[in-house]
Write a structure and sequence with these properties.
The chain has five helices and 16 strands. It has about 400 residues and is mainly β. It has a 16-stranded antiparallel beta barrel.
Length: about 400
Protein backbone atom coordinates (compact mmCIF):
# COMPACT_ATOMS: atom_id res chain seq x y z
CA UNK A 1 0.00 0.00 0.00
CA UNK A 2 1.23 3.48 -0.81
CA UNK A 3 1.66 5.52 2.38
CA UNK A 4 -0.32 8.75 2.16
CA UNK A 5 1.74 11.89 2.52
CA UNK A 6 1.63 13.56 5.94
CA UNK A 7 1.54 17.02 4.41
CA UNK A 8 -1.66 16.20 2.59
CA UNK A 9 -3.39 15.45 5.88
CA UNK A 10 -2.20 18.59 7.67
CA UNK A 11 -5.51 20.52 7.46
CA UNK A 12 -7.60 17.63 8.77
CA UNK A 13 -5.12 16.76 11.50
CA UNK A 14 -4.88 20.39 12.59
CA UNK A 15 -8.65 20.56 12.85
CA UNK A 16 -8.72 17.40 14.95
CA UNK A 17 -6.05 18.76 17.29
CA UNK A 18 -7.88 22.07 17.67
CA UNK A 19 -11.15 20.34 18.48
CA UNK A 20 -9.44 17.99 20.90
CA UNK A 21 -7.94 20.95 22.71
CA UNK A 22 -11.38 22.53 22.90
CA UNK A 23 -12.74 19.55 24.88
CA UNK A 24 -11.43 21.01 28.12
CA UNK A 25 -14.75 21.44 29.93
CA UNK A 26 -14.41 25.25 30.21
CA UNK A 27 -17.33 27.28 28.84
CA UNK A 28 -16.91 30.44 26.80
CA UNK A 29 -18.05 32.53 29.77
CA UNK A 30 -15.17 31.14 31.84
CA UNK A 31 -17.30 28.93 34.09
CA UNK A 32 -16.32 25.35 34.69
CA UNK A 33 -18.50 22.79 32.87
CA UNK A 34 -18.30 19.08 33.59
CA UNK A 35 -19.61 18.25 30.09
CA UNK A 36 -16.80 18.32 27.50
CA UNK A 37 -17.38 20.48 24.43
CA UNK A 38 -17.52 17.62 21.98
CA UNK A 39 -19.59 19.09 19.14
CA UNK A 40 -18.59 21.68 16.59
CA UNK A 41 -21.50 23.87 17.68
CA UNK A 42 -20.02 23.88 21.21
CA UNK A 43 -16.75 25.16 19.83
CA UNK A 44 -18.55 27.85 17.82
CA UNK A 45 -20.45 29.15 20.87
CA UNK A 46 -17.49 31.42 21.63
CA UNK A 47 -17.85 33.08 18.21
CA UNK A 48 -20.44 35.52 16.78
CA UNK A 49 -21.72 32.85 14.38
CA UNK A 50 -23.18 30.65 17.14
CA UNK A 51 -26.37 32.65 17.82
CA UNK A 52 -27.48 32.86 14.14
CA UNK A 53 -26.92 29.13 13.76
CA UNK A 54 -28.98 28.40 16.86
CA UNK A 55 -31.80 30.66 15.73
CA UNK A 56 -31.87 29.05 12.29
CA UNK A 57 -31.63 25.53 13.81
CA UNK A 58 -28.60 24.83 11.61
CA UNK A 59 -26.31 22.15 13.00
CA UNK A 60 -22.67 21.93 11.88
CA UNK A 61 -20.92 18.62 12.57
CA UNK A 62 -18.43 16.17 11.17
CA UNK A 63 -15.55 13.81 11.84
CA UNK A 64 -12.23 12.53 10.59
CA UNK A 65 -11.45 8.83 10.11
CA UNK A 66 -8.18 7.01 9.46
CA UNK A 67 -6.96 3.44 9.84
CA UNK A 68 -3.91 1.22 9.91
CA UNK A 69 -4.36 -2.25 8.45
CA UNK A 70 -2.51 -5.43 7.55
CA UNK A 71 -3.26 -8.73 5.79
CA UNK A 72 -0.69 -11.17 7.15
CA UNK A 73 -1.57 -14.03 4.76
CA UNK A 74 -1.98 -11.93 1.60
CA UNK A 75 0.93 -10.89 -0.63
CA UNK A 76 -0.67 -9.12 -3.58
CA UNK A 77 -2.60 -5.85 -3.39
CA UNK A 78 -5.41 -4.90 -3.79
CA UNK A 79 -7.59 -6.89 -1.45
CA UNK A 80 -10.19 -8.56 -3.62
CA UNK A 81 -13.83 -7.93 -2.80
CA UNK A 82 -13.17 -4.90 -0.60
CA UNK A 83 -14.28 -1.34 -1.31
CA UNK A 84 -12.82 1.27 1.06
CA UNK A 85 -9.92 -0.79 2.45
CA UNK A 86 -8.31 -2.30 -0.65
CA UNK A 87 -4.63 -2.01 0.30
CA UNK A 88 -3.22 -5.04 2.14
CA UNK A 89 -0.93 -3.02 4.45
CA UNK A 90 -0.39 0.52 5.67
CA UNK A 91 -2.09 3.75 6.69
CA UNK A 92 -5.16 5.18 4.99
CA UNK A 93 -6.91 8.51 5.56
CA UNK A 94 -10.48 7.54 4.74
CA UNK A 95 -12.54 10.64 5.20
CA UNK A 96 -12.87 14.11 6.60
CA UNK A 97 -16.58 14.82 6.72
CA UNK A 98 -18.21 18.20 7.32
CA UNK A 99 -21.94 18.86 7.19
CA UNK A 100 -24.37 21.72 7.69
CA UNK A 101 -27.88 20.46 8.32
CA UNK A 102 -31.27 21.93 9.16
CA UNK A 103 -33.94 19.35 9.91
CA UNK A 104 -37.55 20.45 9.37
CA UNK A 105 -39.71 20.59 12.48
CA UNK A 106 -41.38 17.32 13.40
CA UNK A 107 -45.04 16.76 12.85
CA UNK A 108 -47.66 18.08 10.48
CA UNK A 109 -46.48 21.60 9.70
CA UNK A 110 -44.91 23.64 6.95
CA UNK A 111 -41.16 24.01 7.34
CA UNK A 112 -37.94 24.06 5.32
CA UNK A 113 -34.62 22.32 5.80
CA UNK A 114 -31.70 20.88 3.94
CA UNK A 115 -28.21 19.51 4.11
CA UNK A 116 -24.81 20.11 2.55
CA UNK A 117 -22.12 17.53 3.27
CA UNK A 118 -18.56 17.58 1.93
CA UNK A 119 -16.32 14.51 1.98
CA UNK A 120 -12.55 14.52 1.50
CA UNK A 121 -10.18 11.54 1.55
CA UNK A 122 -9.69 8.22 -0.16
CA UNK A 123 -13.35 7.24 0.36
CA UNK A 124 -14.50 10.26 -1.64
CA UNK A 125 -12.77 8.91 -4.74
CA UNK A 126 -14.83 5.73 -4.50
CA UNK A 127 -18.32 7.14 -3.96
CA UNK A 128 -18.34 10.30 -6.07
CA UNK A 129 -21.16 10.74 -8.57
CA UNK A 130 -20.16 10.64 -12.22
CA UNK A 131 -20.14 14.11 -13.76
CA UNK A 132 -19.35 15.94 -10.51
CA UNK A 133 -15.74 16.85 -9.64
CA UNK A 134 -14.44 14.17 -12.02
CA UNK A 135 -11.11 15.84 -12.87
CA UNK A 136 -9.18 14.88 -9.74
CA UNK A 137 -5.98 12.91 -9.36
CA UNK A 138 -4.20 11.21 -6.48
CA UNK A 139 -5.51 9.01 -3.70
CA UNK A 140 -7.63 11.63 -1.94
CA UNK A 141 -10.52 13.38 -3.61
CA UNK A 142 -13.04 16.04 -2.64
CA UNK A 143 -16.69 15.13 -3.06
CA UNK A 144 -19.97 16.96 -2.57
CA UNK A 145 -21.59 13.97 -0.92
CA UNK A 146 -24.96 15.61 -0.26
CA UNK A 147 -26.58 18.88 -1.34
CA UNK A 148 -30.36 18.89 -1.04
CA UNK A 149 -33.30 20.95 0.14
CA UNK A 150 -36.11 19.61 2.33
CA UNK A 151 -39.69 20.84 2.33
CA UNK A 152 -42.04 19.62 5.07
CA UNK A 153 -45.73 19.88 4.12
CA UNK A 154 -48.76 19.51 6.42
CA UNK A 155 -50.11 16.22 5.07
CA UNK A 156 -50.92 13.17 7.22
CA UNK A 157 -48.25 13.11 9.94
CA UNK A 158 -45.90 15.05 7.66
CA UNK A 159 -44.88 14.93 3.99
CA UNK A 160 -41.23 15.70 3.22
CA UNK A 161 -39.87 16.49 -0.24
CA UNK A 162 -36.12 16.01 -0.72
CA UNK A 163 -34.65 17.67 -3.84
CA UNK A 164 -31.00 17.42 -4.86
CA UNK A 165 -28.18 14.98 -4.20
CA UNK A 166 -28.46 12.55 -1.28
CA UNK A 167 -27.14 9.22 -0.06
CA UNK A 168 -29.17 6.12 -0.82
CA UNK A 169 -31.77 4.93 1.69
CA UNK A 170 -30.91 1.34 0.77
CA UNK A 171 -28.87 -1.02 2.92
CA UNK A 172 -27.94 -1.20 6.59
CA UNK A 173 -24.48 0.36 6.32
CA UNK A 174 -23.70 3.89 5.14
CA UNK A 175 -20.92 5.95 3.58
CA UNK A 176 -20.57 8.05 6.74
CA UNK A 177 -17.92 6.20 8.75
CA UNK A 178 -18.99 7.43 12.18
CA UNK A 179 -22.45 5.91 11.73
CA UNK A 180 -21.32 2.33 11.06
CA UNK A 181 -20.83 -0.44 13.60
CA UNK A 182 -17.59 -1.68 11.97
CA UNK A 183 -14.74 -0.03 10.03
CA UNK A 184 -14.93 -2.32 7.00
CA UNK A 185 -18.02 -2.45 4.78
CA UNK A 186 -19.97 -5.52 3.77
CA UNK A 187 -19.98 -6.99 0.27
CA UNK A 188 -23.64 -5.96 0.07
CA UNK A 189 -22.82 -2.31 0.72
CA UNK A 190 -19.98 -2.27 -1.78
CA UNK A 191 -21.50 -4.22 -4.66
CA UNK A 192 -25.24 -4.85 -4.30
CA UNK A 193 -26.65 -1.32 -3.99
CA UNK A 194 -25.89 2.26 -5.12
CA UNK A 195 -24.12 4.90 -3.01
CA UNK A 196 -25.91 8.15 -3.93
CA UNK A 197 -28.76 9.58 -6.01
CA UNK A 198 -29.62 12.90 -7.60
CA UNK A 199 -33.30 13.68 -7.96
CA UNK A 200 -36.50 14.03 -5.95
CA UNK A 201 -37.72 11.83 -3.10
CA UNK A 202 -41.08 12.26 -1.36
CA UNK A 203 -41.63 10.68 2.07
CA UNK A 204 -44.94 10.67 3.87
CA UNK A 205 -45.22 9.77 7.54
CA UNK A 206 -48.60 8.07 7.16
CA UNK A 207 -48.84 7.17 10.85
CA UNK A 208 -46.46 7.59 13.79
CA UNK A 209 -45.06 4.12 12.99
CA UNK A 210 -45.41 3.89 9.17
CA UNK A 211 -43.62 5.85 6.42
CA UNK A 212 -43.77 5.55 2.63
CA UNK A 213 -41.33 7.01 0.08
CA UNK A 214 -41.26 7.32 -3.68
CA UNK A 215 -38.81 9.19 -5.85
CA UNK A 216 -37.45 9.77 -9.33
CA UNK A 217 -33.65 9.95 -9.60
CA UNK A 218 -31.03 10.02 -12.33
CA UNK A 219 -29.76 6.56 -11.37
CA UNK A 220 -26.85 4.97 -9.52
CA UNK A 221 -24.08 7.35 -8.45
CA UNK A 222 -24.55 9.95 -11.19
CA UNK A 223 -24.75 13.72 -11.26
CA UNK A 224 -24.75 14.02 -15.05
CA UNK A 225 -26.94 11.17 -16.29
CA UNK A 226 -25.77 9.13 -19.27
CA UNK A 227 -29.37 8.00 -19.79
CA UNK A 228 -31.36 11.25 -19.63
CA UNK A 229 -34.46 9.61 -21.10
CA UNK A 230 -34.49 6.66 -18.69
CA UNK A 231 -35.05 7.92 -15.16
CA UNK A 232 -34.80 5.55 -12.20
CA UNK A 233 -37.57 5.04 -9.66
CA UNK A 234 -36.95 4.50 -5.96
CA UNK A 235 -39.54 3.34 -3.42
CA UNK A 236 -39.34 2.64 0.33
CA UNK A 237 -41.55 1.32 3.10
CA UNK A 238 -40.62 1.85 6.74
CA UNK A 239 -42.26 0.53 9.90
CA UNK A 240 -41.26 0.99 13.51
CA UNK A 241 -42.90 -0.81 16.42
CA UNK A 242 -44.68 1.41 18.95
CA UNK A 243 -42.17 0.33 21.61
CA UNK A 244 -39.32 1.05 19.10
CA UNK A 245 -37.77 -2.37 19.67
CA UNK A 246 -38.31 -3.42 16.04
CA UNK A 247 -37.89 -1.59 12.75
CA UNK A 248 -38.36 -2.92 9.21
CA UNK A 249 -37.37 -1.13 6.01
CA UNK A 250 -38.10 -2.32 2.47
CA UNK A 251 -36.54 -0.58 -0.55
CA UNK A 252 -36.75 -1.11 -4.30
CA UNK A 253 -34.96 0.64 -7.15
CA UNK A 254 -35.70 0.12 -10.87
CA UNK A 255 -34.17 1.81 -13.89
CA UNK A 256 -31.88 1.51 -16.92
CA UNK A 257 -28.31 2.20 -15.76
CA UNK A 258 -25.87 1.27 -18.54
CA UNK A 259 -24.62 4.11 -20.78
CA UNK A 260 -26.65 4.60 -23.94
CA UNK A 261 -29.12 1.86 -22.99
CA UNK A 262 -32.66 2.90 -22.09
CA UNK A 263 -34.38 -0.49 -22.30
CA UNK A 264 -32.47 -2.96 -20.07
CA UNK A 265 -33.59 -2.49 -16.48
CA UNK A 266 -31.55 -2.94 -13.32
CA UNK A 267 -33.63 -3.85 -10.26
CA UNK A 268 -32.65 -4.30 -6.63
CA UNK A 269 -34.87 -5.22 -3.69
CA UNK A 270 -33.46 -4.43 -0.26
CA UNK A 271 -34.76 -5.36 3.20
CA UNK A 272 -33.52 -4.53 6.70
CA UNK A 273 -34.83 -5.63 10.09
CA UNK A 274 -33.39 -4.35 13.36
CA UNK A 275 -34.36 -5.62 16.81
CA UNK A 276 -33.44 -4.49 20.32
CA UNK A 277 -33.39 -7.47 22.66
CA UNK A 278 -32.29 -5.56 25.75
CA UNK A 279 -30.25 -2.56 26.79
CA UNK A 280 -27.13 -4.55 25.93
CA UNK A 281 -28.10 -6.65 22.89
CA UNK A 282 -29.15 -5.47 19.42
CA UNK A 283 -29.30 -7.35 16.12
CA UNK A 284 -29.85 -6.48 12.48
CA UNK A 285 -30.36 -8.41 9.25
CA UNK A 286 -29.91 -6.97 5.76
CA UNK A 287 -30.75 -8.82 2.51
CA UNK A 288 -30.46 -7.76 -1.15
CA UNK A 289 -31.58 -9.32 -4.42
CA UNK A 290 -30.44 -7.72 -7.69
CA UNK A 291 -31.22 -8.35 -11.35
CA UNK A 292 -30.19 -6.62 -14.58
CA UNK A 293 -31.39 -7.35 -18.08
CA UNK A 294 -28.74 -8.02 -20.73
CA UNK A 295 -25.79 -7.17 -18.47
CA UNK A 296 -23.83 -10.44 -18.85
CA UNK A 297 -22.75 -10.54 -22.51
CA UNK A 298 -26.33 -9.95 -23.57
CA UNK A 299 -27.76 -12.33 -20.97
CA UNK A 300 -29.59 -11.34 -17.80
CA UNK A 301 -27.48 -11.07 -14.64
CA UNK A 302 -28.33 -11.56 -10.97
CA UNK A 303 -26.76 -11.13 -7.53
CA UNK A 304 -28.00 -11.64 -4.00
CA UNK A 305 -26.84 -11.90 -0.41
CA UNK A 306 -27.54 -11.38 3.27
CA UNK A 307 -25.66 -10.03 6.28
CA UNK A 308 -26.40 -10.37 9.98
CA UNK A 309 -25.16 -8.15 12.81
CA UNK A 310 -25.10 -8.63 16.58
CA UNK A 311 -23.97 -5.83 18.90
CA UNK A 312 -23.31 -6.27 22.61
CA UNK A 313 -22.81 -3.21 24.83
CA UNK A 314 -20.08 -4.08 27.33
CA UNK A 315 -20.08 -0.74 29.12
CA UNK A 316 -20.80 2.94 28.63
CA UNK A 317 -17.62 3.29 26.52
CA UNK A 318 -17.20 -0.15 24.92
CA UNK A 319 -19.27 -2.32 22.59
CA UNK A 320 -18.57 -5.35 20.38
CA UNK A 321 -20.13 -6.17 17.00
CA UNK A 322 -20.03 -9.38 14.98
CA UNK A 323 -21.04 -9.55 11.32
CA UNK A 324 -21.63 -12.68 9.22
CA UNK A 325 -22.32 -12.34 5.51
CA UNK A 326 -22.93 -14.38 2.35
CA UNK A 327 -22.86 -12.79 -1.13
CA UNK A 328 -23.25 -14.42 -4.54
CA UNK A 329 -22.53 -12.65 -7.82
CA UNK A 330 -23.96 -15.24 -10.21
CA UNK A 331 -22.74 -13.71 -13.48
CA UNK A 332 -19.79 -11.57 -12.39
CA UNK A 333 -21.35 -8.21 -13.20
CA UNK A 334 -20.77 -6.81 -9.70
CA UNK A 335 -17.40 -8.29 -8.63
CA UNK A 336 -15.91 -8.56 -12.12
CA UNK A 337 -16.04 -12.36 -12.12
CA UNK A 338 -18.63 -14.90 -10.92
CA UNK A 339 -18.03 -15.54 -7.23
CA UNK A 340 -19.64 -16.75 -4.02
CA UNK A 341 -18.14 -15.03 -0.98
CA UNK A 342 -18.62 -15.09 2.76
CA UNK A 343 -17.09 -13.08 5.57
CA UNK A 344 -16.94 -13.11 9.35
CA UNK A 345 -15.97 -9.89 11.15
CA UNK A 346 -15.52 -9.04 14.81
CA UNK A 347 -14.86 -5.50 15.97
CA UNK A 348 -14.84 -3.29 19.05
CA UNK A 349 -16.00 0.31 19.41
CA UNK A 350 -14.04 1.81 22.31
CA UNK A 351 -13.95 5.31 23.76
CA UNK A 352 -10.69 5.07 25.74
CA UNK A 353 -10.91 8.41 27.60
CA UNK A 354 -14.07 9.55 29.34
CA UNK A 355 -12.91 13.16 29.08
CA UNK A 356 -12.73 12.86 25.27
CA UNK A 357 -16.00 11.09 24.34
CA UNK A 358 -15.72 12.09 20.69
CA UNK A 359 -12.59 9.95 20.11
CA UNK A 360 -13.30 6.32 19.21
CA UNK A 361 -10.90 3.45 18.52
CA UNK A 362 -12.27 0.55 16.49
CA UNK A 363 -10.07 -2.55 16.18
CA UNK A 364 -11.36 -5.21 13.78
CA UNK A 365 -10.44 -8.70 12.59
CA UNK A 366 -12.06 -10.00 9.40
CA UNK A 367 -11.93 -13.29 7.49
CA UNK A 368 -13.14 -13.54 3.88
CA UNK A 369 -13.74 -16.85 2.10
CA UNK A 370 -14.48 -17.83 -1.50
CA UNK A 371 -16.60 -20.93 -2.14
CA UNK A 372 -15.85 -21.04 -5.88
CA UNK A 373 -12.09 -21.49 -5.76
CA UNK A 374 -9.21 -19.00 -5.46
CA UNK A 375 -10.45 -15.41 -5.51
CA UNK A 376 -8.12 -13.54 -3.13
CA UNK A 377 -4.40 -12.69 -3.26
CA UNK A 378 -4.33 -12.25 -7.00
CA UNK A 379 -6.45 -15.35 -7.59
CA UNK A 380 -4.18 -17.67 -5.59
CA UNK A 381 -6.12 -18.16 -2.35
CA UNK A 382 -9.60 -19.06 -1.14
CA UNK A 383 -9.21 -17.03 2.07
CA UNK A 384 -8.23 -13.55 3.16
CA UNK A 385 -7.48 -12.35 6.69
CA UNK A 386 -7.26 -8.68 7.64
CA UNK A 387 -6.51 -6.82 10.88
CA UNK A 388 -7.46 -3.15 11.20
CA UNK A 389 -7.20 -0.40 13.80
CA UNK A 390 -9.56 2.45 12.93
CA UNK A 391 -9.82 5.88 14.56
CA UNK A 392 -12.83 8.21 14.38
CA UNK A 393 -12.78 11.71 15.87
CA UNK A 394 -16.21 13.36 15.75
CA UNK A 395 -16.94 17.03 16.23
Amino acid sequence: MSILRTSVHAPALALAVALLASSSGVRADGADDTRPATDLIDVLRATPIARPLDRARIRPYGWVEASVTTSPLTEESPRAGRVFDTEIDGFRFHQAYLALERAPADGCCLDLGGKVAVLWGTDAALVHARGLLDDQTGDEHLDLLEAHALVRLPLACGLTLKVGKFTTPMGFEVIEAANNLLPSRSFLFGYAIPFTHTGVLATVQATPTLSLSWGVVLGWDVWDDNNPHALTQLASFGWKAPDERDAITLNAIVGAERPGNTSDLRMVFDATWTHTWSDRWKTAVNADVGYEEGAAAGQDASWWGAAGYATHTLGDRLSATARAEYFRDVDGTRLGTPATLAELTLGLDWTPWRSVPNLRLRPEVRWDHSFDGPFFDGGRDDDQLSLTLDLVFSF
